[in-house]
Structure formats: C-alpha cells, structure tokens
Protein: Major facilitator superfamily (MFS) profile domain-containing protein
Amino acid sequence: MQIPSNMIVGKIKWPGLYICLGMAAWGIVSALMAIVHNYGGLLAARIFLGFVEAIFFPGALYFLSLFYNRRQYAFRTAILYSGSQLGNAFGGLFAIAILNLEGKHGLEGWRWLFLVEGVMTTGLAIIFAFILPNSNKKILNLTEEECEWVQWNFIKDQGQEDNSDEITATRGLVLALTDVKTWLLCGTLYATYIVGAVVNFFPSVVGGLGYDRNTTYGLTAPPFILCVFCMLINGFHSDRTQERFWHVVGPLGVTLVANVIAVSTLSIGARYTAMMLLPASFYSSAVVTLSWITGSLSQPAAKRASAIALINALCNTPNIWASYLYGGAPRFLVAFIVNLAATGMAIGFAAATRVYLGRQNAKLDRGQTLGKNGPTEAQLAGNYRYLL
Structure:
C-alpha cells in the first residue's frame, strides 16, 4: 500500500491533510482493536492497520521534500525519525503504565493499551490537520514574503519547482523502477534494515542480560535516547558538509564493531555496550541514506514520491523473515552473524552508489546528457550535481 499511497500523495494538492487523515484512520483502527474478541477479528484489524499505517512514513518523507532542499533534508529526516526512536525508548514504559489499568471498567489491560494509544493518535491527527501546510506557497504563521523565500530556497537547489502535473503517477513509478540509483540506494537501505530488525526483539535481547521485565524495559530506553542524539548530529553534519557517503558508512563501521562485541562475549557490560551502539549507529546511517534517496531521485516529483515508497516498502520486508533469526537466547548467534554480513553488504552498496553517482557527475561536467533517469532540463540549467 505504500507505493499506491505515495503515488496519490505525489499528485494531490493537499498532501498534509491526506497524511493527517491517514494518521487519524490509523488511530481509529488501533482503538477498535480493543473490542476484538477472536482471532478472525484480530486478523482483520491487523490487515486494516497495515493499509492505513502505510500512508504515514513514506508520505511524511515526501512531504518534507516539498519544503526542504538537499542541503537541509538529512537533518529534517533525523528529526522525523527521532519521533519513532523516542517511541521505542519510552513506549515500553508507557505500556506498563497503561497495563496497570487491568480490570478498570471491566476491560483487560491490553484493551486499554489499544484504546488509549489509538485515541491519542486520532486526537493529535485532527490537531495537526489544521497546522500542516499543503504546499510551500502557504504556510501557517509565515508571511507571503517568507513563503516566497521557502520556494526560492527549494528552486535554487533543484533548478525547478515541483509540478505534480509534469508526468503521470504511473510514469513516475516506471521512472523509479528503471533507474539504477533506485536499486543501489535500495540495496544500501535494505541491508541496513536487516540489522535494524533487532529493534523488534530489543526487549528479548536486552532481557537476555538476566533482568526482570520492568528493569529490562528501563534498560531499553538509553540506547534509543542515545540514538536520537546521534541521528540529529549525523544528519546535521551531513547537511552542513554536503556529504553523504561517509555519513552512511561511518556509522555502519560502528554497527560492525557492535555486532562483533555481541557475537564474541556474554559479558553483561560488553553486550549492553553493543546494545547502546547498535540503534545509534544503523539509524544514524539510515537517515542519511533516506536523504540520499530523496536528493538523488528528486525530479520529477511523481518519480520522487514513487521511489521513496518503493524503496521504503521493500526495505521493511526484513521485518518479516528476520524474526526467525532471533532464536538461541541469550547469545542470538545466528542473528548477529547475519547482521555482520548485512552491515558489510550495506557498506558495499553505499560504495557502489558513490562510484556510480561520481561517474554521473563526471559526465555532467563534460556536458553529456544522462537520459530519462538523469537530471531534468531545468535542473541541468541550474548546474545540478548529485551529492556524494
């Protein structure tokens, strides 16, 4: 659903409202899971949840790209991702608090969990629907002159303003599918997200250190808090220096070290250090990869929207099969060995991407055209070059 949803969001005139409506539907479906009484109902609710959830993240990445150019995007992506990581940090503790409502008004604790979090999500979505702009031409609390500056800042980098009518949504998807850059960057992010699947089992992995449930949930928070700071710093520095490759590969080097530690010892201190380093490193890399995707596949806008969703959808599939890796507690040997290999693969794809984009830039410097998958004529007129 991510791909058709982003094909829609790339063409409509009110993407901000569309994303908020999707977020509200997400909250409503989550809240309705509180009334499920059998497996069939739970399965149906989960399917609907997947439909509406698919709108948010790729849509939000595209939405940010409407307002920020390549020299600003990595830091903004890091801010967006920080919300998810703060949820990982405190979600378990928040859930424990809600589960203490067990028996109130005749409802089990797990029903309260879905109800409270679903209602909160829906309420926030309604509020944000009145705040989020739908284009860079009219932004709440900005004057007309300030909005014009936002537009100029975008055009200065891209060489053109976004035009949702430039090509059809289907044509945008075809351009994304046939672009080598899509698959090189997809390979980088896919391999990174293989390692990222450890987040789904983080309480189990940390629980392997031998602590009780509440202590375990408490110990899962610091790694994600560190992760937020590292993502923001890496994204900010990547934008400031206008460099992508080393800001992708550098954190992945830390990921390699963390996985080596996790594989080689059962020492509580050493393994918790590895757990501290893992999210901070691979997510710091991922946010820059996402900005590399958006900046390298930027025009036409319909292509950018499809590429973001296509890559994000494919790169989340490790969450399906990686669940079978995390057996053999407390060492989780197979999982961490696979993570080591995946980290190496991510570094390899990132290196291939840098070489390819460097060669594309060299062709542009020689005045050669790059065909349908290169910069548009307007971008070429603005001396567009790929960030390396």
